[in-house]
Design a protein that fits this description.
Distance between the termini: 23 Å
Subcellular location: Cytoplasm, Perinuclear region; Endoplasmic reticulum membrane; Late endosome; Rough endoplasmic reticulum
CATH superfamily of the largest domain: endopeptidase domain like (from Nostoc punctiforme)
Number of helices: 11
Mean pLDDT: 76
Shape: globular
EC number: 2.3.1.135
Structural class: alpha+beta
Strand order of the largest sheet: 5-1-2-3-4-6
Largest sheet: 6 strands, antiparallel
GO molecular function: phosphatidylcholine-retinol O-acyltransferase activity
Radius of gyration: 19 Å
CATH topology of the largest domain: endopeptidase fold (from Nostoc punctiforme)
Keywords: Acyltransferase, Cytoplasm, Endoplasmic reticulum, Endosome, Lipid metabolism, Membrane, Sensory transduction, Signal, Transferase, Transmembrane, Transmembrane helix, Vision
Oligomer: single chain
Number of domains: 2
Order of helices and strands: HHEEEHHEHEHHEHHHH
CATH architecture of the largest domain: Alpha-Beta Complex
InterPro entries: LRAT, LRAT_dom
């Protein structure tokens, strides 16, 4: 039988990550009407090369993709729609926040190709900004692009273990890692370990329940088991 403590901790962390991990556009857009994406041509792609790692910084997160050339970007997006249909025409439409959030909850996603405009959605783009962290591990540009193309289609999704950053680091550097996820987990762990932050930890857990809901089988005592174990450690 699997230990329920790591599973509960993972579930809670993923719920918390969801609070700050909406990839594409303002959170309410998917519920009160989608915002209008930038018009084609708003981005100068002349300096982009096939296999480049594109990075779009947001306020609380970063979205990543691999440039394939001809104004096309491969990126991993949470999406519930591939679970219900094989209609590529429907799936290829720009992912709305409803589809994205349900995809995160259901842990389903797809590696898809969008235009640079739809990928960045008005944000600034950094090119190969992560290369400095990997030095000699950078793969060839064509190898990076081919890896991205081979992974096209539906895939499992996890905010902690298989997100857009894992996808691009595997494609360009050969190993799936996510620095923003690691940083988030360490921050949460530090808060939980601090005896003075017990109340804050409980409030964060309650906020995740109120905002996102939890499976009926996940009771409050189960959720807070990891907290008490970490604080006692």
């Amino acid at each position: 039988m699997k230990n329920p403590v790591p599973q509960a901790a993972s579930l809670l962390l993923e719920k918390l990550m969801l609070l700050v991990h909406v990839h594409v556009r303002p959170f309410l857009a998917g519920f009160v009407g989608e915002t209008t994406p930038p018009a084609p041509g708003d981005y100068d792609t002349s300096s982009f090369k096939r296999g480049d790692l594109l990075e779009v910084p947001r306020t609380l997160f970063i979205h990543f993709g691999i440039y394939l050339g001809e104004n096309r970007v491969a990126h991993l997006m949470p999406d519930i729609l591939p679970s219900f249909t094989d209609d590529l025409q429907q799936i290829q439409q720009v992912v709305t926040n409803k589809r994205l959030i349900l995809g995160v909850i259901a842990r389903t996603a797809s590696v898809r190709v969008d235009t640079v405009e739809d990928f960045a959605y008005g944000g600034s783009i950094l090119v190969n900004h992560m290369d400095r962290l990997f030095e000699d591990q950078v793969l060839g540009s064509e190898e990076s692009a081919r890896r991205a193309e081979k992974l096209m289609g539906a895939t499992a999704y996890s905010l902690l273990w298989n997100n857009c950053e894992h996808f691009v680091t595997y494609c360009r550097y050969g190993a799936p890692v996510s620095f923003q996820t690691d940083k988030f987990c360490e921050t949460v762990k530090m808060i939980i370990r601090d005896q003075r932050s017990v109340l804050a930890s409980v409030l964060v857990g309650l906020a995740s329940i109120v905002c996102l809901g939890l499976a009926p089988s996940t009771t409050l005592p189960t959720i807070f088991i990891p907290f008490f174990l970490w604080m006692a450690g």
